[in-house]
Design goal:
With about 350 residues, this protein is of the alpha+beta class. It is built from six helices and 18 strands. Among the domains are: about 55 residues, no CATH class; about 170 residues, Jelly Rolls, CATH 2.60.120.
Length: about 350
Amino acid sequence: MTAMERFLSRPDTRSMQRAEGSHPAINALGRTNPIPVQRKLGTFSPRRFRMMGTLALGIFVASASLLYPQEAPAPAPAANSAPAVSVPIAIVPLDSKNPDLAATVTGALEVTGSKAIIAASGTVTSGQQTTQVTLPRRGVLRVCAATTVKLAADSSVPASGMPGLLMAMDHGAVEMSFATSAEQNADILLTPDFRILIGGPGAAEVRVRLADHGDTCVENAGVNAPYVLVSSVFEGGAYRVQPGQRVMFQHGSLKEVVDQEKEPCGCPPPAPRGNEFPLAQSEGLAPLAAPAPAPPAAGNTPVAPLTYNSAEHAPQPAPSSSPSTAGAATAAATPASPAAQKKPGLFGKIGNFFKKIFGAD
């Protein structure tokens, strides 16, 4: 017999006393004692029914929890799991040998060896040459000479994702060669007049140059050109730069657009070193400039050039020995200048000697 059956078969003493009409007996102390009566099985009181109902409800709830087990709780993360390693947004090389050519880097960074590592935000200022900034997992950003660019990453993206890059510049030029994000995290370049959005997917080959009077040149080159949208900060509106297109926004306005700009939008070519010969003249497209004459050396007298004329040295015909010719020669020699009547020399005396012998006089 189970415990439940024994509990249900136990009679109720008080209900049996009321049913039999038992009368209390008076003991020696004057107190009444109930007279024991014979138990009668099979009678149940309301209190007994309430207890049985409560017990049955408990048994039903316990059996339901066994028939329909609950879902297993999610395992707690391990306490010794390694945290996600954050990737820096940029790595800038530093040239300590030539301070004039080296780039200047400021912000939240760490200097290791000959490079500066920008963790979350920083500023890069190029010297007299272009600085190639490495973007981990993406590509490179070339900051042209004498250009300052501010960099920052999107802090809302988790460390496992690829955050969008925010760049800002107010002069100079930049060249972007990196992979765009495929997670809808666009890269943005801010200028004093425009907001340039570079969206993926694709490989960005975007060049931007800021000139005087707000002129802004934007070039979207490359085979897999991304989505490039130029928005005006003051006027409103937007202009999409198509793949392979080079656009000049004159005076910082979307209303003055030159969609076939001839000059490149990126970094200017470096100054020639050693070979000063122009390219146009080497290709025969322009005449060569005449070299300037060298000045004469001090203390030297200019010398007349050596020339030869054969007519001046041709043989002359022999003079005639007739008296008329001699008289004419004498008459012609009469008006000679005083300089010609000077004393004859040795050769003159020899000539006069032969003249006397042959009768020339």
